[in-house]
TrEMBL record:
Family: Belongs to the bacterial solute-binding protein SsuA/TauA family.
Domain of life: Bacteria
Keywords: Signal
Name under which the protein is recorded: ABC transporter substrate-binding protein
A Pfam family per the record: NMT1_2
PROSITE patterns per UniProt: PROKAR_LIPOPROTEIN
Native organism taxonomy: Bacteria, Bacillati, Bacillota, Bacilli, Bacillales
Organism, as annotated: Rossellomorea marisflavi
A GO cellular component entry from the record: periplasmic space
Coarse class of the protein's main subcellular location: periplasm
Amino acid sequence: MKKWIRTGMAVAGIALLASGCGKQAEPLEKVRVAEVTRSIFYAPEYVAIEKGFFEDEELNVELKTTWGGDKTMTALLSNGADIALVGSETSIYVHAQGSDDPVINFAQLTQTDGTFLVSREKVENFEWDQLKGTTFLGQRKGGMPQMVGEFVLKEHGIDPHKDLDLIQNIDFANVANAFASGTGDYVQLFEPTASIFEKEGKGHIVASFGTESGHVPYTTFMAKESYMNKNDETVDKFTRALYKAQQWVDQASAKEIADVIAPYFEDTDPAIMETVVDRYKSQGSYATDPILDQEEWENLQNIMDEAGELPERIDHDTLVNTSIAEKASKE
């Protein structure tokens, strides 16, 4: 009798195994994301991928770095990407050109500027007035780093075009090299370059533009309105996964975050990565939810207006959809 029971169980097991082998798992939906640059500043994005939050939502995020706002927006508008991670100012520029398929901001990733003021010489008790009469190596004209940089200088009573020698005709990728080669007394740099320069004795971090400028939608996930209308469930899933990552980053230590995103920065010293993550966390650069609110939107436009780069003032509701992020934050 026991022999027959064992035989029956074996047959049932084989049948079950065969059934399992024959069943195909549903393929994950591919979402093509173009990021404006590769940066520790975007840690929650990489956490969402590495921790499987996108996969949990049955999404396969195909990430590519497009190196520049213009190239990123071109990829999005030409259907080379489904979603773009780039500064919200680009959606305003596109709208001003009369696009009949507006680019909609639906999930905010970072909520402050990500650059730091680095001096060539060590400065004790730094005051912003010390910039007057110096050579300042800034960022490309029309981009958020440059606009925020000038906004902060003006907030401290400095006219960037009169009170110092402002250099802003160097490509983003070459700014750090120009400073390292001897150009400028001060420079506006992203991490981890700022911390690397400090460690190597090439410069000294004296101030944070992110702390000085307040909350602003510095980098946001956006998509064409037509894509969002046709793929509303996909955008919901994407935003839910992002929110999970934002919450995880908010609760995790700098070392835990640095360990998770390490595969994206293989050439960066782990200790530097941890320092950078801690710096961004402590100044509140990583948004803890994906909601781009009215106040942040107005602050962005004020900064653009002050820089003379705002083509026209756009209502928050025209280019920002908060309903998706609000829904994700409540689930």
